[in-house]
Batch of 2 targets.
Target 1
Amino acid sequence: MVEIMRMTILASGSKGNSTVVASAETRVLIDAGLSCRELMRRMAIAGEDPAALDAILITHEHQDHVAGLSVLARKLHIPVYFTEPTHRAWVRQMTPRSTITYAKWLERVQQEKEERAARVAAEMAGDDGSGDLDSSALQLAAAAEDAEEAAPAKSKADPASLPAVEYFQPGTGFSIGDLLVMPFTTPHDAADPCGFVFESASERQRMAIATDLGYVPPNVKAALKRIDVMLLESNHDLEMLKDGPYPWSVKQRVLSRVGHLSNHATAEFLANEYDGGAEYIVLGHLSEANNAPELALLAAEEAIRERGGLLGNRVLLARQADPLDPICL
Ligand SMILES: [Zn+2]
Ligand SMILES: [Zn+2]
């Protein structure tokens, strides 16, 4: 049986991340870090049908991973998978901090009450009935229906409302259709960040997404075994970051153990820990200010060359500005 698994990287970098992973029967989007419109545009360019997506999975709540999430999920009417802490952090982020006073709030409630009453009164005025019991019962029912109709409209206005939310836990696998998903914890300064390994139902093909991590801890090393297509972070060149435009505090954050992987750290992983089995290694989340694609590529290719026998590994660069061609197995 020919099984097809596919990864289409729509965008990768600190200005937005989003990737489609597809198995024979299931298609998911990992992160939605561009506007809904731009994500739709890129899916069209890459030949991915948005209507065929089954779910959206979120690695963590940073803006470059969730910018278009709510609009896209509502448009496609598909569930969003988060860890519970990530979902909570995202909701907090999406809910504008309310600074109104109690008096203002009371005023608003009163105003809404009056509007409702006015609507019911208008309906009653339009009714030519004699105001007998039956017709007032009808009016009450109509008012109740109005209230029900008003409720979904209200939840639509809630920026954090989603068609459906599913929770997963890092370290515990789950399935979406015929796609097996194994989330793993990553060291990064977010509420509950994770990466993913995706496996076809036959367990013959495996793809991984591992970006936004300060270093490669043992659990990530273990997760990245037997991977056929690996999207791996190669965020910055150490020299460029040190000499670059970022303020010291931001440099410290990027360099920290909950920041991002440098070209050097990625090369070190590839040279010393990686099992060499991938058909494709895609370097991603490259910093535009503190990296150059050719430096990232050079470091990774050198690391692989040192391993001698790994010539079968193709190294690609994910891009920020436009999608990569789908990578098919
Ligand atoms: Zn990121
Ligand atoms: Zn991040």
Target 2
Amino acid sequence: MTAKKIALLLMISVLVGEVYSALISSAALESPSVLRVPQNYPTIQAAVYAATSGDTILVDEGTYHESVSVDRSVSLVGKGKAATIIEGNITVFEQTLVKVTGFTVRGGRRNGITVFDSTNVTIIDNIIVGYNVGIDLTSVNQSTIGANIIASNSLTGIATSDSYNNLIFGNSLSLNEVQNIGLVWSSNNTIIGNRMNMSLTGLILTGNSVYNTVVGNFVSNNTKGVYLEADSQGMSPNYNTFYHNSFINNTSQVVNKTSTVNVWDNGHPSAGNHWSDYTGVDNNGDGVGDTPYIIDVNNLDHYPLVAPYVDVSPPNTVDDYDGLWHVSNFNVTLSSIDDRIGVADTYYRINGGLTRSLNFDSQPFFTTESSEHELEYWSQDLVGNEELPHKIVTNIKLDKSNPSVSINEPKSGSQVVPPNVTITWQGADEVSGLDHFEVGLDGGLWINKGTALTHTFLGVSEGDHTVEVKAFDKSGRTQTSSVSFAVGVGGFGWIYLVIVVFVVVVSGIVIGVWYYYRKRSAAIPKRRSKARR
Ligand SMILES: [Ca+2]
Ligand SMILES: [Ca+2]
Ligand SMILES: [Ca+2]
């Protein structure tokens, strides 16, 4: 259940690392351009003002002393969160589809990154230190705040107000003085796999903040682990669900300042949270304490975990390549599962090229002919465990062209002396290579000839015939060539026939004449002898 929800939310999100090159690649694929700072533009702001919707602004390593106002749908991509430093603020106002990734943001005043009235904003893999508020979201929906390091801000690490359906995952928050994460009038958000340590409050929910899901977080060494508080109008945070969190050594694990009702477990056997001050026992050894952890009369964890809920194992990713030749452009589909907190993103490289990710790009897509494409892939989970070693599939095969075949003998329209007809041919295939030939006469059964280049049909009747030769390549693509010809006595036969008839007729006449004269010459001497007498 959780995994599905996470997967949906993650369709719009991306995780640590490799994002830089993923964005380069996605930008290179599409018509939107890549604007480089400082190579093409001296400041990040100048690049933003020059960009159009969908563009990517790549910011090289270095320290940039400027505040950036993002007033269009662009991706701001630093060379890496340790390498590209902005000393100033980033503000996103009334936008959609904005990404900010790969920066250190530090040394400014007020908020590190401020977003208002926006949707589909992705803030991933940054370091934000030394502000009042690290990331401040107001009226922000369907956005992702993931894998950031947010520390040493004087008020709040991540603050949301009037914000809905956001995913806050895998962030490391510590030493933010008042609270690490604060939700004010914010609902249906998912807060998963974050570390919230060493603050006055780990996580505070205020006002009508309802139906938030808080899963798999590590909340430790805060004065208050979770703080539930009504607002000035008396609205309280209710119906929030907390499970698989580890509450460790907070002075007060949960402070409920109002009469809220929230859910503190996910039933059995999924279970609830780990509480370092739980005093119950687990006599049946199922990992679940045998008595509830009681926060107050309305808030009980019925299935407290006796050990911290930790996720140290990376996801497992598989591909669906069948090992066979494909004959047109095709996807290999990658899918991954994580045994604990969930998958953040899946990355891949084709033939050692740029890294792409499923959150930014489509599934791996093969469009060029080869017998040896290589696909490398791996996933990371929501707490940053990377699947190692990466998986590699070799010899991914695509053949988009038919073989060639042509018949050498007999020639088209020729006549063949009966009774046997010998066919000869040749063929070729460039990508997968020839597999075999088949030959057929007059639409009859195909005869598999293997790689032979000749076949003799025996006892072919006189008359017109058509022979076909079909070449198959190893991908199963085919090409057929055909030739029509005649079987019979042929042109010289006619002449012989005429000569024979002529000879027979002439001979008959000659014999007839000879016979006539022979009879006549025999009669003359008889008459003469009669006369003598
Ligand atoms: Ca038990
Ligand atoms: Ca995991
Ligand atoms: Ca082929």
